[in-house]
């Protein structure tokens, strides 16, 4: 009996040694504006890499960067600006920073075209201190010389997804988000002159473990997905 158990344990040990080990889970933290496009691309990536598990975390770029700074284990970080990506490169061992692939355009949304910055009573805006979309909007309003008048109407929210939700539930009249956040039930209003539109480029950092996924989302196949969803794609 003892001999039989010893042989059985040896078989289990040897079998375990030859079991294919699954890749470690990849954690992707991305700006809220990137969320929907990334869901599509994660599915496409998993179709080619079925063993790879991916954890997707979306939110305001500053909040995500602070989480990483505090020790969150993140393999790929996608920021709606270059500043937060560069900040993380200084404190995290990353292998890549990119600011030449993706861009966007700040846009004012409303339910109807009769609204503007002056007759709107409530304006949804992501926090300019930590969210690039909010900072871009503030820069545009300052350029137009109306920030001091508009700032008293602002409803501060967490990120651009929250801006869209706030508009849809009627808690705000206008909201600042990105061109890629367009939805059928909201109107994009041409309220910002071209000279006041800030240049928007996304920053991407990656650890060595996230390199394969990073290459995938900057591939020609992925670029088509982002372009279709309203992003500016360069290169």
What's the CATH H-level superfamily name of the largest domain?
Answer: Periplasmic binding protein-like II
Count of alpha/pi helices = 9
CATH topology of the largest domain: D-Maltodextrin-Binding Protein, domain 2
Total domains:
2
Structural class assignment: alpha/beta
Please, could you describe this protein's structure?
There is one protein chain. This protein is of the alpha/beta class and 235 residues long. It folds into two domains: 21-103 and 200-233, Periplasmic binding protein-like II (D-Maltodextrin-Binding Protein, domain 2, 3-Layer(aba) Sandwich), CATH 3.40.190.10; 106-196, D-Maltodextrin-Binding Protein, domain 2 (3-Layer(aba) Sandwich). Helix content is 39%, strand content 22%. It is built from nine helices and 13 strands. The protein has helices spanning 2-17, 35-48, 61-69, 82-91, 132-144, 147-150, 160-168, 211-217, 220-228; strands spanning 26-31, 54-59, 76-79, 96-98, 102-104, 106-110, 123-126, 154-157, 174-178, 187-189, 200-201, 203-206, 232-233. A five-stranded mixed β-sheet has the order 2-1-3-12-4, sandwiched between helices. Strands 8-7-9-6-10 form a five-stranded mixed β-sheet, sandwiched between helices. Strands 11-5-13 form a three-stranded antiparallel β-sheet, covered by helices on one side. Helix 3 (61-69) packs parallel to helix 4 (82-91). The longest helix has 16 residues, at 2-17. It is elongated and about 60 Å long.
């Amino acid at each position: 009996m003892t001999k039989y158990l010893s042989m059985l344990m040896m078989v289990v040990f040897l079998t375990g040694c030859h079991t294919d080990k699954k890749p470690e889970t990849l954690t992707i933290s991305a700006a809220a504006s990137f969320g929907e496009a990334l869901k599509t691309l994660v599915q496409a990536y998993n179709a080619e890499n079925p063993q790879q598990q991916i954890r997707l975390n979306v939110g305001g770029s500053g909040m995500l960067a602070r989480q990483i700074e505090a020790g969150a284990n993140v393999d790929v970080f996608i920021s709606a600006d270059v500043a937060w990506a560069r900040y993380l490169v200084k404190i995290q061992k990353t292998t890549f920073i990119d600011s030449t692939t993706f861009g966007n355009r700040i846009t004012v949304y409303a339910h109807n075209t009769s609204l503007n910055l002056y007759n709107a009573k409530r304006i949804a805006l992501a926090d300019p201190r930590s969210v690039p979309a909010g900072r871009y909007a503030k820069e545009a309003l300052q350029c137009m010389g109306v920030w001091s008048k508009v700032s008293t109407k602002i409803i501060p929210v967490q990120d651009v997804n929250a801006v869209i939700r706030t508009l849809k539930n009627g808690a705000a009249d206008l909201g600042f988000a990105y061109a890629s956040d367009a939805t059928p039930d909201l109107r994009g209003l041409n309220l910002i002159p071209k000279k006041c539109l800030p240049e928007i480029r996304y920053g991407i950092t990656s650890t060595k473990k996230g390199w394969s996924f990073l290459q995938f989302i900057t591939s020609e196949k992925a670029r088509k997905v982002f372009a279709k969803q309203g992003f500016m794609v360069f290169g």
